[in-house]
Amino acid sequence: MSEEVDKKLSPVENKVLAALEDVIDPELGIDMVNLGLIYKINVDDKGNCVITMTLTTMGCPIGNLLADSISEAVTSVEGVNTCDIDLVWEPAWSIDRMSRFAKVALGIHE
């Protein structure tokens, strides 16, 4: 997520962001946040959370596994009752969205 988005998160949305750092892409071994796959987090007053995100590729074979892990992590946060995932393809994911940590871990040098 961009720094711009991070600054706009509520306290519960920040907790959701932290929980998503525990969801690891099994193919890459890096969490969803550091991979830059999480575009937006929105939790309403009733505890309904919508995660806007993408995948590294459209045909990602582990998409359903990741969705289950994301929902489980998000609903474990106090104050969150439901989790819906809005899977988007725009803007397209690229390695530029990855954090420095993820790039170093994967051996990608800038």
Automatic annotation (TrEMBL):
Residues 14-81 form the MIP18 family-like domain. InterPro entries: Fe-S_Maturation_MIP18, FSCA_dom_sf, MIP18-like. This is MIP18 family-like domain-containing protein. It comes from Secundilactobacillus silagei JCM 19001.
